[in-house]
Design goal:
By secondary structure, this protein is of the alpha/beta class. The protein is built from 25 helices and 18 strands. The protein has a 7-stranded mixed beta sheet with strand order 3-2-1-4-7-6-5, with helices on both faces. A 7-stranded parallel beta sheet has the order 14-13-12-15-16-17-18, sandwiched between helices. The chain has a 4-stranded mixed beta sheet with strand order 8-11-10-9. Strand 1 and strand 2 form a beta hairpin. The protein starts with 15 loop residues before the first helix and ends in a 10-residue tail after the last strand.
């Protein structure tokens, strides 16, 4: 076997030893090949493309040898594909469906018939690409969406370029929506061009194949490498890329400041139908496009590849703003942006009405997914962070495609009707309907102070469990690093952001909210949980003790809330402020003058904020814990010794002492406080503000009278 490894534009990742270990198991080699291809985003985008292999298996009903095709099932991603994500189908049954195929007007009914071809009863649902692989005879097949190939496929002269570049060894099939007929067209192309090594699908992607997993893998790399090299040699030959630079970006620091200022405003506009989560990037490829002379010509055309289009919508919204505009006057900024969003929604509504069919699903959210701010970067908004991030990745794919197509010819997008028929395809609608219902906090963004441990960490985890994006933080960098590892392991990179935060420092507070705006688009829930405690008799209390208690607990709560509501008002979506106070705000106890009075101040400050913020739809509520010992830093500061002394017990006896003094005789855990917080923000108490919820096991002296 000759091993080809000399690639410039793609990654050769094949490991001979690993492949040898899988020798003889073609399905395992399919999965290995798929994962390698999916690991290089230059070969295919997230969730895009499909891979297959054909094997001979024993028919469980007849015991005869029968050919089976193993193919990525519907909705999977080849980069993470496992055996459970494959569909296994009888090849002869699949091909025999041609006998009942009634033509293009009856494409959708064929998808249901794929289920009658299932060989492996553990199969994932077969995808719409199944017949495209099934009607080709090759043992191993890749269908990929590489930017370099799509750039040629989306070029006005794409067919001729393909023929010239590959000297007739790559076939061509004009754009057609994926389905049974496209599978027949691929077969026809092969019949008319025997000996070709692949087929280019107009405005769509690439098919390549081989007799073995390795031959298929190398064939795919070689074809994509040739496309990429051809584009590279042609960049600039027709003129400046994207018509040359029109504007210059400010420094990255300025870009990030501007992006953080405008993101909550954009999020508010994009969330007119439901709460959206944002993503921001100022990737150099984005800046090259949005700063160019050709931006206003190319952006309205939209994308070509169906995968790109389904993620990024019909076209982006381009903001008419100078990159260094003064964004501090929120009212003026909203007035300036409102017509652009209204115009976009009207454009989308007109697109829907002009293209809809009698049986089309109802019009979906008319707001843009992609928002381009020339000189600054790209914002994307969707139902969750992962979907918003992936939309950005797909639009960067689209930028690459436009750049390549313009370098060698002229970029062409999908006709509007074709685009609509993909977006509102009944099969796509069925796929959307099968998706799990959103969790209660999906689309919400929460900042929880002191969330690297104890109560704060439990609250952040509960919110993440319920679908929220969370900004975790602590003034202890080492503790925060451990929490980051925990959240990454439990929730993945898209569920959280992390920042060091001192709640007494306005610069640090602003930086934390900037991170929230850049990572997720804004903030919906602020939880003031950072705290400390000092238990001393009044004669032993120092001025320093008093100041730090009031700085962290009272001033910290005020400053964090103040900055949070500034962002909430920018969004215009309302919001929640939760203050984790204490039973000590209501109960007088010994050796507790500083801590208890600061907690009382927190409680009344909460009431004052609730009274003020109601007109903005911002709710302010309080959770009063008591004696939450687990994973709390409070107990590292001498508080435990002070309370034990005050109550005449040992430190070891404190948990039992606290439990016994409650009406329910219960030890209170961080998770109990987290559940109370979720009860207040989970959607069932949206008409409640200014309330106090005690989570203390029942302490009669703390009853709110």
């Amino acid at each position: 076997m000759s091993i080809v490894t000399d690639f410039k534009h793609v990654n050769y990742l094949w490991n001979e030893a690993e492949a040898a270990r899988l020798e003889g198991d073609e399905v395992a080699l399919l999965l290995y090949r798929s994962n390698l291809l999916g690991a290089d985003l230059r070969l295919t985008n997230y969730g895009g493309g499909n891979t297959s292999c054909k094997t001979f298996e024993k028919d469980p009903l007849t015991a005869a040898e029968t050919e089976v095709m193993w193919i990525k099932g519907s909705g999977g991603d080849i980069g993470t594909l496992k055996r459970s994500g494959l569909a296994g189908l009888y090849v002869d049954r699949l091909r025999n469906l041609e006998n009942v195929y009634r033509g293009l007007d009856h494409e959708d009914e064929m998808v249901e018939l794929f289920n009658h071809c299932i060989y492996d009863l553990k199969s994932k649902a077969p995808s719409i690409d199944t017949p495209l692989h099934g009607f080709l005879p090759f043992k191993h097949i890749d269908h990929l969406h590489p930017d370099a190939a799509i750039a040629i496929a989306a070029a006005r002269d794409g067919r001729k370029i393909t023929e010239d570049l590959f000297e007739g060894t790559i076939g061509w099939v004009d754009w057609q929506r994926p389905g049974f007929d496209l599978g027949l067209q691929l077969r026809r192309c092969l019949d008319e061009n025997p000996g070709i090594r692949g087929i280019m699908l107009g405005s769509h992607g690439l098919f390549t194949w081989g007799d073995t997993a390795y031959e298929c893998y190398v064939n795919s790399l070689e074809v994509i490498e040739a496309c990429a090299e051809y584009l590279e040699q042609n960049f600039g030959k027709k003129g400046l890329v994207f018509g040359g630079q029109k504007i210059e970006s400010p420094s990255q620091e300025v870009r990030r400041k501007q992006a953080a200022r405008i993101a909550p405003v954009l999020r508010g506009f994009c969330s007119s139908e439901r709460h959206m989560v944002g993503h921001f990037t100022d990737d150099v490829r984005v800046l090259e496009f949005i700063n160019s002379n050709d931006l206003n010509r190319l952006a309205p055309l939209g994308t070509s590849c169906p995968d790109h289009f389904l993620r990024t919508k019909i076209s982006p919204l381009v903001l008419d703003l100078d990159p260094e505009s003064d964004l501090s006057d929120v009212k003026s900024l909203k007035e300036r942006l409102a017509p652009a969003f209204e115009s976009y929604r009207k454009m989308y509504g007109d697109y829907y009405e002009s293209c809809r069919h009698d049986n089309s699903p109802a019009m979906r959210d008319p707001n843009p997914v992609v928002v381009l701010y020339p000189g600054i970067g790209m914002f994307t908004f969707s139902k969750d962070k992962q979907t918003a991030r992936v939309a950005a990745e797909f639009y960067i794919n689209a930028i690459n495609v436009m750049k390549g197509a313009e370098a060698v010819s002229e970029y062409t997008s999908l006709p509007r009707q074709e685009a609509f028929d993909i977006e509102y395809w009944l099969l796509e609608e069925a796929k959307l309907q099968r998706m799990p219902k959103p969790k209660a906090l999906s689309g919400r963004i929460a900042l929880v102070t002191g969330s690297a441990g104890g109560i704060g960490k439990a609250i952040a985890k509960k919110f993440a469990d319920e679908g929220a994006c969370v900004v975790i933080n602590d003034n202890d960098a080492e503790r925060l690093e451990k929490a980051k590892a925990d959240f990454h392991s439990g929730y993945g990179k898209d569920a959280f952001a992390a920042v060091v935060l001192d709640v007494t420092n306005t610069e640090k507070i602003s930086a934390a909210y900037e991170e929230a705006a850049l990572a997720f688009g804004g903030i919906d829930i602020v939880v003031n949980c950072a705290g400390l405690s000092i238990s001393k008799p009044i004669e032993d209390h120092t001025e320093k003790d008093w100041d730090i208690l009031y700085d962290v607990l009272v001033k910290g709560q005020f400053l964090v809330t103040q900055k949070g509501i500034e962002i909430m008002r920018k969004q215009g979506l309302g919001g929640d402020v939760l203050n984790i106070v204490s039973k000590n705000a209501l109960v007088s106890g010994p050796n507790n003058a500083g801590y208890g009075s600061a907690k009382a101040a927190q409680l009344h400050l909460s009431r004052l904020n609730a009274a003020e913020l109601g007109p903005d739809g911002i709710r302010v509520n309080v959770v009063n814990p008591d004696a939450v010992i687990s994973d709390s830093k409070i107990w590292e500061s001498g508080w435990a010794e002070g309370r034990a002394k005050a109550y005449g017990v040992t430190v070891a006896e404190l948990p039992a002492y606290y439990a016994k003094r409650t009406l329910l005789n219960q030890i209170i855990l961080p998770e109990d406080i987290a559940n109370a917080c979720y009860a207040l923000v989970g959607g069932l108490m949206n008409k409640s503000t200014g309330n106090v919820l005690n989570v203390d096991g029942g302490v009669a002296m703390a009853f709110v009278r």
